[in-house]
Structures are given as C-alpha cells and as structure tokens.
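User: For documentation purposes, I need each entry recorded in a consistent format: the amino acid sequence on its own, followed directly by the corresponding structure tokens. There are two entries in this batch. Please keep commentary to a minimum and don't merge the entries.

Assistant: Recorded as requested. Entry 1:
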Amino acid sequence: MKAAVVQINSGADRSRNIGKAGSLVAAAADEGAELVVLPEKWSLLGDGAALAEGAESSEGEAVTAARGWARDLGISLLAGSFTETSEDGLPTNTSVLISPDGGIAAEYRKLHMFDVEAGGVRYRESEHEQAGGEIATGDAGDLKIGLTICYDLRFPELFRALLDRGVNAFTVPSAFTSATGRDHWEPLLRARAIENQAFVLAANQTGEADPSYDSWGHSMIVGPWGEVLAEAGEGEGFACADLDLAEVEDVRRRLPAVEHRRAEIFREGIVNGS
C-alpha cells in the first residue's frame, strides 16, 4: 500500500484551508496513495475563541468535504483532526478515519491536552477543549490503524494499548511546534515505530498562524525498523511511501520484542513485586 502525509499551513480562513487540503489530497492520490493523512486542525487553526466559534459536528463542512474526497478518489483518508462540537461542555479535538466509500470507519477524541509552555508561548488546550476518554482503531485495507493526535505522541502507554488491539500502523496528525519539533519530533516518531515495530504516519502543520502558532512541518512516514521512509521538509506539500506489511511481520519475527513483553509485571496493582 502507498500512503501519504499531507502538510498544510492552516489558519483562520476555513475555505482556503479546505481548498488547499483537497488539492493536496487529490495530488497524493494521483501519485498512487491509497491512504492519505491530514494534519491536526487542518480545516481551522486559531486561538481558543476562534476554534470554539468554528467548532462543528461530524456532519459539518470539514468532514463532509473529506468524505467526498475519499469517495471520489477511492482512498482511505485520515481527516487529521477538527474541533468538534459536544453536547456535554467544551468541544473535542477529533480525528476521523474515512473509508473509500465515504463512510466513517473510526473516530478518536484526543486524550492528552497540550497544557505546556514552549518557545515562550503558553498553551492551555484544556481551557477551550475537553479530553476524550477512549482509544480507537480502524481499518484501511490491510492496515489496522491506531489513532492518536499530536501531544499523544509523548505518551507511549497509549501506543502500547493500541498495539494490544492488534495495530500495525499509527496515525499522528499534528500541529507540533517548532520550539519542540526541532529536538523532539523525529526522535519521538522513530521511538514509537521502533518500540511497537509498526508504521507511523505523522502529518504536521507547517509555518506560522495567528495568534502565535509556529509549526515545525517535517511530516514523515516511519517504518517498523525506525527508518524514515519519506519526509515533507518545510512548506505545504506531501510525502509518499510504500508500506510493505510483510516488513512488520519480518521485524517482529527477527527481533521479537513485542512478543517478549512482560505485561503481567506492569499491570495495575502490581507494585514493587507485591
């Protein structure tokens, strides 16, 4: 299977963002991509107030457009993430996996809120979004995908939980900052691929956006041995790579770290050997 990660410089202009995303998705499909991954907040990126005002349901403009692209192009599409309205309080940061027929194969709401200081900027996602409470997987051809979003990348226990559900690939739509990305982006992506012996498809935002976003770009696809198979660098565009699922089986056979896990030692309630 050929896969692509799309890199966009999204901002407050929803129409421009959606138009650009659609053209890049189509270009990736023209190069043979059967699975395309969009970045976090691809349809609208802004401050908390702008995101709240622009929140929409899965029946809204962003997901409707993405479902149409998937159906028209006959591809699987990970529609990055969008700000989804909630019937219970704050909106959620939601990722949607769409099947080639335009149907929704999986939905995931970001578990870990980005409440940090990076590059002199204070981020407090929990002030305008609520965390999800469930992990999610979905199928795209022979890929069984574990869904994550951006800051989730720093929590290997999420990836292990998804691994236990049989995944052989992870999607990481992101708006990873330049302040952290230059040192952490590639090492973390490669680590998640190596320790789980699975593909990692990470589509990142790039460039500056109001009020203080500065995204690292460098979207990439990483193989189960930890090698970078494709990278988008800086600027808007996409990167493609062929995913050989036999490689996952081969790596897990030759270096059976997944099989050698001692999960019983780390179960909840087992502390200091008691």
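Entry 2:
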Amino acid sequence: MEAREIMKMAVIHLMEVPSSLSKLTKGFSWEPITIGHSEAMTFLLKGPQTNQYLKVQPIHSVEHLFDEKEKLEWLEGKLPVPRVLFYGKDEAHEYLLMSEVKGVNASDQSHRDDLPSMLESLGTGLKTIHRVRIDNCPFIQSMDVKLVEAKNRVEQGWVDEDDFDEVRKGRKAIDLFEELIAKRPLNEEFVFTHGDYCLPNVIMEKQGVSGFIDWGRAGLSDKYQDLALAIRSITSNFGKEFVPFFLAGYGMRELDESRVAFYQLMDEFF
C-alpha cells in the first residue's frame, strides 16, 4: 500500500476510532509508518510533549493485536517495551495504542558510522530477552505449535508466496512445508523469544538498545527462532560480513547453520 493511501486511511480512522481512543489521541498529529509487513497499519502520533504509536488492524486478520497487548503487559518491568495505553475493538478493527520507545530503529542507515558497536549491542539485547524467566510464561511458540499453525496457513491459502525470500522465489507453499517437516531439528533449546527479532523491531540510542517493539509473536521457543531472523535481517540491511559482530555481542561461539536455515524457512509461513 502506498504511503498516500495509508495517510488517507489515517484520516478516516481519526474520525472513526472508538470515542475512548479518540479522547486519548486528541491533539496528536498522525504520521503513517510504512516499514514492516504486518497486517496492521501503524501510525506515529506526534504530541506537544510525548509521542505515541497506534496500530489499527482488521478484526478478522490472521494474527491479533490482543495477543501483542497481552504480551506487552506481561513484559512490563521485565524488558524495555512500549506501555499499553489503550486496547479496544469494534465491528471492523482492533486498536492498540502504545507509548513511544525513544531512539532510532536498528535498520536505519545512520548506524553505518559504527556498525560493529551497534550490532554487538543488538546481540547483547537479544541475550537480555533470552534471559527473561520462563517458569511462569503463558505464551507457547514451540516447534509443534508453529508447525501446526504453518500447516493451517498453507491449507487456508494465507501464505504469501510472492513474499518468499529470494532463494525460494517461484516455489509453492505446500512444497516448502514438506521441506520444513523434513528438515525439522531434533531438539529445541527453550528460552523466551521475541519471535521477530529483525532490525526494525530493535530501537537504538547512542549505539545501545533503548527498547524492543512488535511483540505479537513472542513466547517460549528455540533461541534460534530469534538468531535466524536477526542474521537474515543483518545480512539484508548491512551485509553478511557484519553478522559476526552480532554473534559476539550475543556470546555465540559456534553457530548451528541447519537450525538457522530451518527457522528462516519457518518464517516464510508467517
């Protein structure tokens, strides 16, 4: 969707959002955020003193903003994440209003001045996420859970085959799913995972991590769920030669390339 179309929708939603949300956003100017590939429309709401972020998503979307709201509330006090200011829904949409995490996302080209330092911080940040206690975590994103969901998405025709990574362009979702089953790792090393640890979802300030956003896919999973997507994102944005700085920050000495490949393949279904 082009930016001007999103801006047009923003104006519409300014008039149509629930009255309780309208009161919270009164006096803010709306600016569309076009980075990312989720079903949600995201807006930066600029205020006279503070900024906010609003996600608006069709009520019948495959994923739900309520899940992200629940995870953000569970993470409050555990990690630097946005604070939930409002959640609501109507017959057409879900709405999630959040506080701002100050800084610049890790994919921004301004980081090229000191990429090694930034990427080491990115690795350290992921290690911080993976150290969150999991004994009372209610969110399960295990391999079994993800494979069931991937199969369902294939059967429902929800997999965007046009958005496959370059190495899988032109292939069919059902073929990739069969490959996914065949390449399933034997073991999982469970930690609390972000679920979509890509550069745009990590906010940096002075080369250090100031916070993490977009938590809809978070939960208990293999640590390679995050490592694999971070490696792909770094390679895409800055080049494969910079991945070792990230791994050094994480403290990873030996990388299991087969698990990296598996979780990158898994991501094609989500």
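Summary note for entry 2:
The first strand starts at residue 29 and ends at 33.
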